[in-house]
Design a protein that fits this description.
By secondary structure, the chain is of the alpha/beta class. The chain contains 6 helices and 5 strands; from the N terminus they run αααββαβαβαβ.
């Protein structure tokens, strides 16, 4: 499998239209970012960017990968926003279903950020389940929370 940090670096680089702006945004050196992107391309066995003069342009595979990354990281941001709002951070119970295909380090990072107390508010109680998409839909439909969240990309 691949490293979600590499995916995030790819996502930000594509969003920023290049390594220079992305490295500033990520606060890492350009050579380090380039190396991480090459590692991701090697792991996926595809070329994600193509050089056109001084610009880096997404290849067809890069555009497809970017669309998936956008779904992943926008869903993570929505989840974080939901839990960090007043109602989400004041003792709310959340049931989180994670498909077997999602890398555990990604889930751990997301949940650890969400569970960090902010401004004296109580962190939500999070129940996590894992399984196939259909198993989780069934379990989450019976969940005691008002808004079960299914992480399935």
């Amino acid at each position: 499998m691949f490293n979600f940090n590499h995916l995030y670096y790819f996502y930000i680089t594509a969003k920023c239209d290049g390594i220079s702006k992305a490295s500033k945004f990520l606060r890492i050196a350009q050579p380090s970012l380039s190396s991480q992107l090459h590692t991701l391309e090697a792991q996926l066995n595809v070329t994600l960017f193509q050089r056109e003069g001084r610009r880096m342009v997404l290849t067809e595979a890069g555009r497809t990968a970017f669309a998936y990354c956008r779904k992943i990281f926008e869903a993570a941001d929505e989840f974080k926003d939901f839990l960090s709002k007043g109602d989400g951070a004041s003792g709310t119970r959340v049931t989180l279903g994670v498909c077997n295909e999602i890398e555990r380090p990604f889930v751990v990072e997301l949940v650890s950020q969400i569970l960090t107390p902010r401004g004296g508010s109580r962190a939500p109680r999070v129940t996590m389940i894992s399984g196939t998409h259909s198993q989780m839909k069934r379990v989450l439909s019976e969940a005691p929370t008002q808004r079960p969240i299914l992480v399935d990309f």
